Amino acid sequence: MNPPPGAGTRSPWAWIPSLYFAQGIPYVVVMTLSTVLYKNLGISNTDIALYTSWLYLPWVIKPLWSPLVDLFSTKRLWIVTLQFVIGLAFALVAFTLPGPGVFKLSLAVFWLMAFSSATHDIAADGFYLLAMKHGEQAAFVGVRSTFYRLASLSAQGGLVYLAGRWQETTGSIVQAWSLVFGLLAVVFIAVAAYHFFALPKPESDRPTAGGQELTREFFAVFAAFLRKPDIFTVLAMLLLYRLAESQALKLLSPFLLDKREAGGLGLTTQQVGIVYGTVGVAALTIGGLTGGLVISRHGLRRLVWPMIFAMHAPIVAFLLLAIFQPGNLWVIGSALAVEQFGYGFGFTAYMLYMMMVADGPHKTAHYAICTGFMALGMMLPGMAAGWIEDHIGYVKFFSWVLACTIPSFIVIGRLKIDPAFGKKLPAN
Question: Distance (Å, rounded) from C-alpha 346 to C-alpha 209?
Fold first, then answer.
């Protein structure tokens, strides 16, 4: 498939919002929406956490095949092709749900979706660097982030709400979720068709020649990363900062949906779409924007301790919800808003730390390696979270999650951060 004739300069507003909205949707579907789907289908927490955590693997290992995106074809063609593939994967999920062996078959399709989405991330981020001038890149970083978060809001809020609404109108969980994934398929194929025409065609977007040189450079990049100062502290930070959150995140939707006699809050799917997907993601976005603002004024070193406390302390809200099991939706929504705001605020420090670690001659590749270790730190603890909860219940589980914040505090005490890093320079 060749791009359409007549390359012209296109406004970034014509493609950046849609590209990063499309980048966020499949990740949220694979990581979060799948847990709601499987909980609705009656899958155990042990199986939900174990098998959906494995879906992090493509993001863990994506640096291993990132050179292929450079070596074969253009990033523009990778983007459009992968969006069509992801759209077809959504359609496959819709078709597998009514049949036998739905858990295994849908997981297999989610694997396809996860690998396609991780590869799409590589192509989209690389295309952004090629298609934008340096000044434009900085100006549109906030636009990228905003539309990625809007994708989270749409998937965790709007789609979950639709699934609950259609469950009521059709009387069938399977039919409702088939409609949701069918809708996603139509939207994604339409987005791919739009990007086929809307994406610009920068001259520098060409396949990289020289496979042997590329292979040699590939290993040199990894070697340079492992030679970074205090590399063991760096790796500990990347793996442990989200140790608590990685477990809480996997069980939050099941906790909200589980019956009260099972220790959950007994919410409907529609209510989860409202309190977690909409209110929660809105609070997450505000927290992230606030975190970026205060770091730009005071620097990362000064704020890393307040930010890690802001990220971990609200886990107490989950514990209190599990103990008291309130029935008031406003109370539940407020607790989740506080937790998500704290997470968005505190996660900013983690992102800035990865940028600091990646800084240097190979910053793009080293940042990808950092995100791979971040995904590994989410995958491994999340795999065991459901088994732990099934054996000890939600109250003890969230107590355990709270205890899992301790290693990250220990690592923070060992970090070496430039006092000026992250602080916005004053204008001349």
Answer: 42
